[in-house]
């Protein structure tokens, strides 16, 4: 049995109280590329693969400890979106890393009287003794409170930047994991449920510069908010509209219609095509869809034929008809 002075379970991981200094929120968009294979036999059970998801773009934003964006939202549309995304994150990390090592001087003049009157550590809440000292934010220089020397040493910024996806485990992680082999100079730590679902994973450089390295920690917000973002009724930050040269989007085509990366940019959509027709990247650039497809065309889930002639494209972007969808 524990002694009377040690029979109370207390929180001791003071370093985990520190809020992250920077956080990244990201999301992928994908095109759905249908498979064309022989008709499976019904003599035994089988799983029929009808399409695969290929990332065609992403967007992310980096937020600091004060809730402000470090720069405008980064948006990319094009091929190799997952590899391009990781490369951009590494660049962002390299730009942020010097901020972790720079200590701003403490501006104490307004808080001097408050420090002298404080009798308890603002971190562990225990009485202060001879080891009382001032704790401040190393990024802003803001005075935070009086603390024990031990608590002050434990309470430090973690060398980590969270990268948050909603539903990372079930979707976005598949795109990222596939491209991690391209980054030979990084090491990875993965926590998985099985070979297909990853709860969280991190990456950081193998070579430490001045014994200091910052890792990227990918986490799933769905683990904490198990519903769609719309149902969670999250507040949306008001952001000025993005300016994209030669782009006029009146309405967005359904997602599986985008079946080529080049169909995503400089698109004027006058009417909505069927969802599964976009399965190639080239269909997303400089395309004007002039008319709705006939009702007889369905998406690839119905396994019907390719769309007939009423599809018209500006500047004859498609020189060859798309492959059949069945």
Automatic annotation (TrEMBL):
Entry GO MF terms: nucleic acid binding
Q: Which domain of life is it from?
A: Eukaryota
Q: Which residues form the signal peptide?
A: none
Which InterPro entries does UniProt cross-reference here?
A: RNaseH-like_sf, RNaseH_sf
Coiled-coil regions listed:
none
Q: What is this protein called?
A: Protein NYNRIN
Q: Which organism is it from?
A: Trichonephila clavata (Joro spider)
Q: Which gene encodes it?
A: X975_21590
């Amino acid at each position: 049995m524990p002694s009377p002075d040690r029979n109370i379970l207390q929180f001791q991981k003071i370093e985990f109280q520190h809020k992250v200094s920077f956080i990244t929120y990201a999301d992928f968009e994908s095109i759905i590329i249908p498979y064309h294979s022989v008709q499976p036999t019904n003599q035994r059970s089988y799983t029929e693969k009808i399409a695969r998801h290929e990332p065609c773009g992403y967007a992310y934003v980096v937020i600091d400890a004060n809730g402000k964006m470090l720069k405008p939202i980064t948006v990319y549309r094009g091929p190799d979106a997952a590899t391009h995304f990781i490369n951009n994150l590494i660049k962002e990390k390299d730009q942020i890393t010097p901020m972790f090592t720079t200590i701003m001087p403490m501006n104490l003049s307004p808080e001097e009287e408050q420090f002298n009157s404080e009798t308890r550590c603002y971190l562990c809440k225990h009485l202060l003794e001879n080891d009382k000292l001032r704790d401040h934010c190393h990024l802003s220089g803001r005075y935070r409170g009086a603390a024990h020397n031990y608590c002050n040493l434990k309470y430090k910024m973690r060398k980590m930047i969270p990268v948050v996806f909603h539903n990372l485990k079930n979707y976005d992680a598949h795109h990222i994991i596939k491209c991690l082999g391209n980054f030979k100079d990084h090491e990875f730590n993965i926590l998985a449920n099985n070979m297909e679902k990853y709860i969280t994973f991190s990456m950081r450089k193998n070579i430490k510069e001045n014994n200091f390295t910052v890792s990227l920690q990918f986490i799933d917000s769905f683990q904490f908010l198990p519903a769609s973002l719309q149902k969670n009724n999250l507040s949306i930050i008001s952001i000025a509209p993005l300016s994209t040269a030669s782009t006029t989007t009146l309405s967005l085509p359904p997602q599986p219609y985008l079946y080529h990366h080049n169909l995503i940019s400089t698109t004027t959509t006058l009417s909505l095509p069927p969802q599964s027709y976009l399965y190639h990247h080239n269909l997303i650039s400089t395309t004007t869809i002039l008319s709705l497809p006939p009702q007889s065309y369905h998406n690839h889930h119905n396994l019907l034929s390719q769309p007939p002639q009423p599809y018209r494209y500006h500047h004859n972007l498609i020189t060859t008809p798309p492959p059949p969808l069945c």
